[in-house]
Amino acid sequence: MQQKSTIVITLVALAALLAAPLVISPVHKNKHVVRSPVSEAPLEAETERVAPEDPGVQQIAQASAERRSGVPVSATGTVTRILPDDLNPPRHQKFLVGLSNGQTVLISHNIDLAPRINVLQLNTPIAFKGDFEWNEKGGVVHWTHHDPDGSHEAGWINYGGQYYQ
């Protein structure tokens, strides 16, 4: 009888554990481990998602912390908001990009010198190269285009495998 009780208790505990939702809890800045909410111990089949450190994101974070402007950067992120174009010459396409460190930057892409990204969509990856300008909202990246005079290093945007320069 005691053996049946032990088996029933074990099965009930196992069923409760399997029925409980999994919780993804942060372990490190860019690393998450799936954990059981019951024990807070990692599950046997531990899964991890590690985002690679982006040196450009680190550059932007440092320039932002030091309130510096005119800093050449190249980084990757995710389109988080698409803003209306600024149609006053020179015209600019504007959108926000979320970086892996949680910071958001405004991309101000000159569409008088470079093609407009007509296929831009929310929550999609993007890479860019340009100049970072500090502001209290997180900063602006501009010069994401070629320089017709050749006096400034060219910037670019890579979206969907296509370069916009």
What does it look like?
- This protein is of the alpha+beta class and 165 residues long.
- It folds into 2 domains: 2-50, no CATH class; 55-164, Nucleic acid-binding proteins (OB fold (Dihydrolipoamide Acetyltransferase, E2P)), CATH 2.40.50.
- The chain contains 2 helices and 10 strands.
- The chain has helices spanning 2-19, 55-65, and strands at 23-28, 31-35, 48-50, 71-82, 92-98, 104-110, 125-133, 140-142, 156-159, 162-164.
- The strands form 2 sheets. It has a 5-stranded mixed barrel. The chain has a 3-stranded antiparallel sheet with strand order 1-2-3, with no helix packed on it.
- Strand 9 (156-159) and strand 10 (162-164) form a beta hairpin.
- The chain is globular, with a radius of gyration of 24 Å.
Give the arrangement of secondary structure elements.
Blueprint: H1 2-19, E1 23-28, E2 31-35, E3 48-50, H2 55-65, E4 71-82, E5 92-98, E6 104-110, E7 125-133, E8 140-142, E9 156-159, E10 162-164
Parallel strand pairs: 6-8
Antiparallel strand pairs: 1-2, 2-3, 4-5, 4-7, 5-6, 7-8, 7-9, 9-10
